[in-house]
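Private note to self, pasted from the team thread so I don't lose it. Backbone tokens:
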């Protein structure tokens, strides 16, 4: 087969779906030497994403998330003969000569439209015709598959659940080395709580800030709160919470952190916390678990499915519940050790090699190979 994969988004963001593209293409190249892969990258992207003899790189002029993206892609794809074309970033071309596979990571834009800008809402509104026209849909969790069949009316047999996995380093990180790296690079010593995500309303950071404020006031905790992630959109409530709780000197905003550097933060953190209102999968908590770091997440959408019994589950709007959960993991050594062991065991159930194999099965199915 000659398999095309839309990898343009990596140039604009290596978080979220960008990470999915990077990990999946790496795993496919490692798994499959028989088929030919064509990675379609932004014309501005000078990096080769994968070095393998059966992986080619092609440039596209169409930028990601442009209002005429589907039409422009249809024209740009005409000269490229393919057996299947995979759109990992939701939206495929209007037409391709090859059957199209799309990955839907979540449907937050349908469930929580108030959390989007008008421009984003208009762009993601294309998901309905995109899902109908696709030969097959990959969902990154069973929770997302349920949303796809319920909200978009896509038949169940047209949707395959293929889980993501954590990014793994070649060698396990030493905790002392990770703590030293965090101390040297960010000036943070001692226990800290870690939040990793693009800062946008769905991630519900104001609830974590409120809980952290209570943790400081009620339990006199010395733990810092580190926020790793770029500013997204509609971040006014985060700024308001920082001022309301007088936390600007206690919360450390790190901005976007590269994946290789992020591993040190995961390993050094005392606890990872994500009070998100909705997740299609939840890669950051899984990556924290892969380092043996206890996690506290919201008990909604896909998060219980990913975390299982390894983490603590809290209502995303229960500030008191988040405060107590944070205090328990920060101070209870037995609980911390138990959660750490369970986290490692749970994270080991997910792998990119398995994701690549199952994705390749989808390619074969839609291409009739």
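Design output:
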């Amino acid at each position: 087969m000659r398999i095309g994969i839309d990898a343009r988004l990596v140039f604009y963001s290596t978080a979220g779906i960008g990470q999915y593209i990077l990990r999946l293409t790496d795993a496919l190249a490692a798994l499959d030497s028989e088929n030919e892969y064509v990675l379609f990258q932004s014309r501005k992207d000078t990096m080769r994403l994968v070095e393998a003899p059966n992986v080619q790189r092609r440039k596209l002029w169409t930028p990601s998330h442009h209002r005429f993206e589907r039409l422009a892609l249809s024209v740009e794809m005409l000269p490229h003969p393919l057996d299947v074309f995979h759109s990992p970033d939701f939206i495929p071309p209007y037409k391709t000569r090859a059957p199209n596979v799309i990955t839907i990571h979540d449907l937050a834009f349908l469930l929580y439209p108030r959390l989007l800008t008008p421009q984003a809402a208009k762009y993601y509104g294309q998901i309905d015709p995109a899902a109908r026209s696709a030969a097959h849909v990959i969902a990154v969790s069973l929770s997302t598959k349920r949303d796809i069949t319920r909200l978009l009316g896509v038949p169940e047999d047209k949707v395959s659940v293929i889980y993501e996995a954590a990014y793994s380093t070649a060698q396990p990180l030493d905790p002392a080395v990770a703590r030293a790296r965090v101390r040297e690079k960010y000036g943070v010593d001692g226990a800290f709580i870690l939040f990793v995500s693009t800062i946008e309303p769905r991630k519900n950071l104001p609830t974590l800030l409120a809980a952290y404020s209570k943790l400081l006031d009620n339990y006199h905790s010395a733990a810092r709160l580190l926020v790793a992630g770029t500013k997204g959109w509609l971040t006014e409530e985060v700024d308001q919470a920082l001022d309301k709780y007088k936390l600007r000197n206690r919360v450390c905003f790190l901005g976007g952190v590269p994946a290789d550097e992020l591993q040190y933060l995961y390993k050094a953190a005392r606890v990872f916390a994500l009070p998100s209102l909705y997740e299609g999968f939840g890669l950051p908590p899984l990556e924290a678990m892969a380092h043996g770091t206890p996690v506290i997440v919201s008990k909604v959408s896909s998060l219980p499915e990913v975390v299982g019994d390894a983490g603590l589950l809290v209502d995303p709007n229960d500030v008191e519940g988040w405060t107590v959960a944070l205090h328990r993991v920060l101070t209870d050594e037995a609980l911390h050790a138990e959660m750490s062991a369970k986290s490692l065991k749970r994270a080991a159930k997910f792998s990119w090699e398995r994701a690549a194999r199952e994705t390749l099965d989808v390619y074969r199915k839609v291409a009739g190979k």
